[in-house]
Amino acid sequence: MKMKKLLLLPALLLTLSVGNVACSYHNDDNPNEYPDPQPEPEPEPEPDPETITVTVSVLCTLAVGNPNLNPGVTVPSDGVIVSGLSLELTPGQTAFDALSQTGLALDYSGSPSRKNVYLKGIGGLYERDCGPSSGWVFSVNGAYPNTSCSKVALSDGDVVSFQFTDGTKLN
């Protein structure tokens, strides 16, 4: 019995080895018979989110030389805090978002996410620093929206201006 098992083992190994050769046969005359596997195509990269470009200015010319300016408050002699700063935003961002990106110190009440921001101060100049009616207003493309700057979504090419008013006129 032991002899039969020993004889069967080489026969089994020979059968397996011939079977592997037969399975791995490749006909070079017909390259499409067993085409080489093609690599998976790489996924296309995600496109960059669309951006818009806006221009922002922050002006306080009506505070310069104003006799009502609170002592200790300093303003630039030309009344220009930021002039024509070009910023890239994503669609849907607001005038407040643009102002926030200037890097100026901001003091406000309300919430940008609730779109109810009220600007109290920009760059150290606050409402009422030049009298009881003074404060900050803003315009987009020359129009003065009668709403919070956190509600006004900007478009590509918009020109945003934040201006300090003494309560009687604009810059």
Largest beta sheet: strand ordering: 2-1-7-6
Mean pLDDT comes to 85
Provide the low-confidence segments as ranges. Answer: 18-24
Main beta-sheet strand count, sense and barrel state: 4 strands, mixed
Through-space gap between termini: 112 Å
Give a description of the structure.
By secondary structure, this protein is α+β, with helices and mostly antiparallel strands. Helices cover 16% and strands 25% of the residues. It contains 2 helices and 7 strands; from the N terminus they run αββαβββββ. The protein has helices at residues 2-23, 95-100, and strands spanning 52-59, 80-89, 106-109, 118-122, 125-126, 135-140, 159-165. The strands form 2 sheets. The chain has a 4-stranded mixed β-sheet with strand order 2-1-7-6. The protein has a 3-stranded antiparallel β-sheet with strand order 3-4-5, with no helix packed on it. Strand 4 (118-122) and strand 5 (125-126) form a beta hairpin. The model is unreliable at 18-24 (pLDDT under 50).
Name some characteristics of this structure:
171 residues; four-stranded mixed sheet; three-stranded antiparallel sheet; 2 helices
Layout of helices and strands, plus pairs?
Elements: H1 2-23, E1 52-59, E2 80-89, H2 95-100, E3 106-109, E4 118-122, E5 125-126, E6 135-140, E7 159-165
Parallel strand pairs: 1-7
Antiparallel strand pairs: 1-2, 3-4, 4-5, 6-7
